[in-house]
Amino acid sequence: MKKIMGVLGAGALAAAAFTGPALADAGPTLKEVQERGTLNCTGHNGSFLGFAEVDDNGNWRGLDIDLCRAVAVAIFGDDESLNIVPVSWAQRWPSLQSGDIDVVIKASGGTFSRDTELGLQFSRPYYLGTTVVMVHKDLGVEQFTDLDGGSVCIPAGTTIERQVAAYADRTGIKLEAVTFEKTEELREAYFSKRCDAYAQWGPTVGIARSVSDNPDGHVILDDVLALEPEVAIMRQGDDQWVDVINWVFSALWFAEQEGINSGNVDEMKANPATTEVGKLLGVTPGVGGPLGLSDDWAYNVIKTVGNYGEIFDRNIGEKSDYGMPRGLNNLWNEGGIHYPMVFD
């Protein structure tokens, strides 16, 4: 290697140094999305509060919806080309495998069987959630084992079913599982006392309790049945599409880490504090071409959707109706698990 470098003259080295990265050929999914002119991303077959719900004006909103918006903006420059496809939990995988949707961003965990049996591929986790159980306070239940012989409402077609069954086996109790496809039906069944307990993803349980008619009439048990990383899920065999999703998520975390938000991104672009910020915002060329995107894709995402903290706060955090704490879903420098990859 030293001999080869020695042969290269200064002019050749300079030319190599200033040669920009080549524009990548779009992978099959990105190419199809660009040619179609729309990104098909998952919604919910009802209202999954805080993550995928429809407001009074008929517009989709939620943390998962905003991540779908971020991907659409990265590709098209705005979110007008986003098509939200309502699907049930069980419909996620057939819809993805058939090509009806391009990516699943729907509070979905990365699991071994989904990887090896269904042929799916995952992004980095964008949310870390626990599986917990809520019970009617008047039952006097203090821990999971007190539910022996009782019934529990569970969302059908999810990992929650297996987690509840495994935890019941581990603790030596028997439970009657009552499953529902729609979240509204699930909540209604529990709150009307068709079930003794309600097992779900932690944020969903917390939000359901907070919006109930009598929050104090329900107790979330201390038992943690499982810990699940929520990821975007794609078909296997298209690494560039996985790269696009991962770098979009990373841009959201990096922007928050560097104090860049939807309100100040123009100022930050005009006067980038570091070379990495300049690269992120497209001041320095090269952040788009290798992904098959424009160099201003991350700028457009932050300007339109905001950073990860903004997305979290307005949908489920302190600026939402639900007031969920960030907890483990904070950035690494705030005691959480999220961190960006490096925009070098």
Report on the architecture of this protein.
This protein folds into two domains: 26-127 and 229-334, Periplasmic binding protein-like II (D-Maltodextrin-Binding Protein, domain 2, 3-Layer(aba) Sandwich); 129-227, 3-Layer(aba) Sandwich (D-Maltodextrin-Binding Protein, domain 2), CATH 3.40.190. With 344 residues, it is of the alpha/beta class. It has 14 helices and twelve strands. The two termini are 24 Å apart. The strands form three sheets. Strands 5, 6, 7, 8, 9, 10, 11 and 12 form an eight-stranded mixed sheet that branches. A two-stranded parallel sheet has the order 1-4. The radius of gyration is 23 Å and the shape is globular. Residues 1-21 have low confidence and may be disordered. The longest helix is centred in the C-terminal third of the chain and has 19 residues, at 239-257.
Number of domains: 2
Number of DSSP-assigned strands? 12
CATH superfamily of the largest domain: Periplasmic binding protein-like II
Helix content: 25-40%
Secondary-structure arrangement, i.e. CATH architecture of the largest domain: 3-Layer(aba) Sandwich
Using only CA atoms, what is the Rg?
23 Å
Shape: globular
Based on secondary structure, the structural category is alpha/beta
What's the quaternary structure here? single chain
Provide a count of the helices: 14
The low-confidence runs, each spanning 5 or more residues with pLDDT under 50, are 1-21
First CA to last CA: what distance? Answer: 24 Å
Average residue pLDDT: 91
**Annotated CATH topology of the largest domain:** D-Maltodextrin-Binding Protein, domain 2
